[in-house]
Sequence to fold (307 residues):
Amino acid sequence: MTSMSPPQTSPLYTPRGKNLALLLLAMTQFVVVIDASIVNVALPSIGRGLHFAPTDLSWVVNAYTLTFGGFLLLGGRMADLLGRRRMFMLGLVLFSLASFAGGIAQSAGWLLAARAAQGLGAAIVSPAALSIITVTFAEGRERNRALGIWGAVVGAGGAAGVLLGGILTSGLNWRWVLFVNVPIGIAAAALAPRTLIESRADDGASTFDLPGAVAVTAGLSLLVYAIVDAVNAGWGSAATLARIAGAVVLLAAFLVIERRGRHPLMPFSIFRLRTLRGADTVNLLIGMSLFSMFFFISLYLQNVLHY
Fold:
């Protein structure tokens, strides 16, 4: 959620309606989170089926997570301005269609494009869902309980994705790690009008800050590509150094855009909060260790130990 003003809860929800809304939102977030890890066990099968080079397999994960993270702020702004329920449903439809496209992929490029589209859909869904929680549940114990459930679902999703990915890949085939999202996403989008109430932010923001979102996503993607491809090109090669320099320029442009914008996607003043800085640092370290562990251990167990 990009709105910095205190959200107002909707008086239209009944206690039962709130529980149904939380169930729908938590289920959706569970699917969004597991998609960052569900493909890991399937990676060797994907590599063989679509003729991926070993050094390119990481992009099956990166295409999703980079697009998701890069456009997350823009997704929150779109939800605030255009309607949270509307964007929640739109993101689910995009996510589901991209999952289907990935499931029927016939080439490496096709799959990576579908994974990027999945990430864009997730970047629209996730902040809209979190914003809906803040306007559905009253501040205090009620909202804390809802956010606690939300956080537990996020934590469980990462681990469950690896387990579910193994079951689907061994029981069916790797394409089902993507197909499984389709009925869940479509069902959630269909239930949203009956379960969720539309809301918008009233913080005065009127622009989407698309340049900022594009700059940070392109910068992070180029930086990751430079690191991943350095194995082939060489760390001291002109190609690697040029990519790193380009990534630095794009990320610096993002900082300039955010500092000069009237309604930036990321107000840097929030980092004055010590607790926020600490939480962000811990989450960054956990993400770096957790998702890299999923990737490397899956390849090691299957390609080296032949499990």
About this structure: Residues 1-11 have pLDDT under 50 and may be disordered. The two ends are 42 Å apart (CA to CA). Residues 141-171 form the longest helix (31 residues). The chain has twelve helices and no strands.
